[in-house]
Every structure is written in structure tokens, then in C-alpha cells.
Design brief:
Its main location: periplasm. With 357 residues, the chain is mostly helical. The protein is built from 16 helices and 2 strands.
């Protein structure tokens, strides 16, 4: 009860106390004794319904809005995307014939159907010949908001990264962009789709492929109950989730998991206190800068309860263990076990409302 009380401002508490008093008064006075018990007292029922809807957590909402911010309605760059471009990008994204042996597509490692949350649930994904990848495949939901692509940040935009999975020897393993273009040209479905998507330059091209995939990926916006809470609905989170959010903010988790994605905007060193893949040197492998060794992108936390396992090597199976490991990093103080559970409870509210935890 004490934890729940902290979630209400003085003004809200007075409002609740007043409403409870009115409910008691109306319940004690029944002007029509002939009415059946099943009918009840309409005024009392209305007040009870009103009380049930009384929101708590206005102060937490304001703090979260200031420290985390609102998810923009549209992803950057999507203003000029057309439905035809999104449709073409979706088809390319799901096309198995664009892997060397016609077995794998982008959708294989980033499934979206049903309750799938844009990642395959593997520690590291397998390539089209079963070859083991080096890093965990992150969710593709909300990828259009990310300023940093890949764990080591080697790509700066969706356009730049669009072709990489087709040519990576550990993924779809095509030998060249020329082979990718030839496969698109040999599929009769694509001619009309490219023409509809790019009427001013209807020829099938790698440039248009990059644009189409980027448009599709920018459309993958994930909205959660947390978004409802922070935007307008104080009832969208229950008291336990609000308390978890308060703990998350109080402990300084937003020092690393900042912004409306709750991460994804900076690199942090993942030191050797815990055991991770020792052969993966992180951002150093891209920059060659010694100071970048063991630095990885801080992952955004949206949909985190749907996207186990965790960290760049997928070595942690449970969210509680992942949160526990954060005790070794930039916390304002060590977390207790109860606080860890509380934060995990809050993180569930970041899941896409169309998916299931």
C-alpha cells in the first residue's frame, strides 16, 4: 500500500479521498427502498466507476516525459515514403530467392508474423547454409528511429545497410550486387512493383532496392502501453509498472538507455566483469581505434521482454539476469533484488501492444 500511495500526487490523493467519501455517503442513502439489490444505486455505481478510472502517477508521467520523451508519430525520412515503396520493400524483405541457395530472407532472422517481434530468438542467427553468425540479431521494430545501425555502428542509415545482409557470407551469401540485381530482374513480379514504387525511374536498380527496403523498415513502428501512459492515459500502467518506472528513473538507467527509444543512441564499454565472446572486439573492428575495443551500441529497450536472449552475443537468456548485470555499470547505486524485479515489471510495458509477452 505504501508503494502505491507514493504514485499519487497530493492533489490526486485529495481527489481519491473525496470520491471515497462520496461513495460512502451515496451507498448509505437509498432513496427508493423498493428497488432490487440487483439494480443497485445508479449514483453509487457511477461514482465507483469514476473512482476506478482515477489515474495515479502524474508526477512519474511528467518525469518520464522529461527524461525519456515521446515517440514521434513518424520515423525520420518517412515523409516521402509511399505505400507502393513499402509494399515493394516488404516483398524484397521476405524473398528467399535473394539468398544464394534460395532458403533464407531478411524475414528469417527478423520475423514479423503473429507475435514475432522482429528477431528470431537465437543467440546468434544462422545464415542461409546454417553458418553461425557472430552477433545477436536485434529486433527490427522501430529501426527507422535509430541513428546507429548494427552493434558496432558500422552503418549510419537504413539506406546504407540495406544491401549488407544479402552480401554477407554469414547471412544470405550472394557474391555481389550484380547477382542481387540479376535475381530481381529474373523475377517477373518485380518489374511492375518497381514501376509503381518509382514511376520517375522505373528500372530495377540497387538504388531503388535500398530505398524500398528503407521505406518498409521505417514503417515498422511499435506502440506500447508505455506510450499510452506517457502521452495521455495515466491508467495504461498498473501501480507495479509505475513503481518500476520510478525505480528505473531514480537509479539513473536513462544515463545509458536514453531518449524515446530508451537506448540505441550511444556506445558503452562492455567490460570483462562477466564473460562475453572474447573474440568480438566490438566497435574497434570497424574503426580500428584501440579506444573502441569492447564498445557496443547500447540497445534500445522497447520490446525487450519479447527479444531474448540478450547482449551482443546473445549469452544471457533471461531479462532479470540482464538487468542484474547492469549493477556493474553506470548506476547511481547498486540495485536490490526487489528493485530488479520492479524494473523488469516496468520493462514489460514497453512491448508492442499487438504482440504478447
Amino acid at each position: 500500500m505504501f508503494l502505491e500511495m507514493k504514485l499519487y500526487s497530493n492533489k490526486e490523493f485529495c481527489k481519491i479521498f473525496l470520491s471515497l467519501t462520496l461513495v460512502c455517503l451515496f451507498s448509505a442513502c437509498n432513496p427508493d427502498p423498493t428497488r432490487s439489490k440487483n439494480q443497485g444505486n445508479d449514483s453509487t455505481n457511477l461514482l465507483i466507476a469514476y473512482l476506478h478510472q482515477l489515474p495515479g502517477g502524474a508526477e512519474i508521467q511528467a518525469e518520464a516525459k522529461a527524461k525519456i520523451g515521446l515517440l514521434p508519430a513518424n520515423t525520420p525520412g518517412s515523409e516521402s515514403d509511399t505505400q507502393a515503396q513499402i509494399t515493394l520493400g516488404n516483398k524484397i524483405f521476405r524473398d528467399n530467392t535473394l539468398s544464394l541457395n534460395h532458403v533464407q530472407s531478411c524475414h528469417t532472422c527478423h520475423p514479423l508474423n503473429g507475435n514475432s517481434a522482429g528477431m528470431d530468438g537465437q543467440s546468434t542467427s544462422r545464415g542461409t547454409f546454417g553458418q553461425e553468425g557472430r552477433r545477436n540479431a536485434p529486433t527490427i521494430l522501430n529501426v527507422g528511429y535509430l541513428p546507429i545501425i548494427f552493434w558496432d555502428g558500422r552503418k549510419q542509415s537504413l539506406f546504407d545497410q540495406a544491401v549488407a545482409p544479402f552480401l554477407d557470407s554469414l547471412e544470405m551469401a550472394l557474391p555481389s550486387e550484380a547477382e542481387l540485381l540479376l535475381r530481381l530482374q529474373n523475377n517477373s513480379d518485380y518489374a511492375s512493383l518497381f514501376q509503381s514504387a518509382f514511376p520517375d525511374s522505373p528500372a530495377i536498380s540497387i538504388d531503388s532496392l535500398r530505398k524500398a527496403i528503407s521505406a518498409f523498415e521505417r514503417s515498422l513502428i511499435s506502440k506500447s502501453r508505455f506510450d499510452d501512459f506517457i502521452e495521455w492515459d495515466l491508467r495504461a500502467l498498473n501501480n507495479e509498472e509505475k513503481q518500476g518506472l520510478k525505480t528505473f528513473l531514480d537509479l539513473g538507467c536513462t544515463n545509458c538507455h536514453n531518449g524515446y527509444l530508451l537506448g540505441g543512441t550511444q556506445f558503452k564499454k562492455l567490460d570483462s566483469f562477466y564473460s562475453y565472446n572474447p573474440s568480438d572486439l566490438g566497435r574497434f573492428e570497424f574503426t580500428g581505434n584501440q579506444d573502441d575495443k569492447s564498445f557496443f551500441k547500447v540497445p534500445p529497450l522497447r520490446n525487450v521482454t519479447l527479444t531474448a536472449p540478450y547482449f551482443h552475443d546473445g549469452s544471457v537468456r533471461t531479462l532479470k539476469e540482464a538487468v542484474t548485470r547492469m549493477n556493474q555499470y553506470e548506476m547511481s547505486r547498486p540495485m536490490t533484488d526487489l528493485e530488479i524485479d520492479s524494473i523488469v515489471t516496468f520493462l514489460k510495458s514497453l512491448s508492442d501492444k499487438t504482440k504478447s509477452n
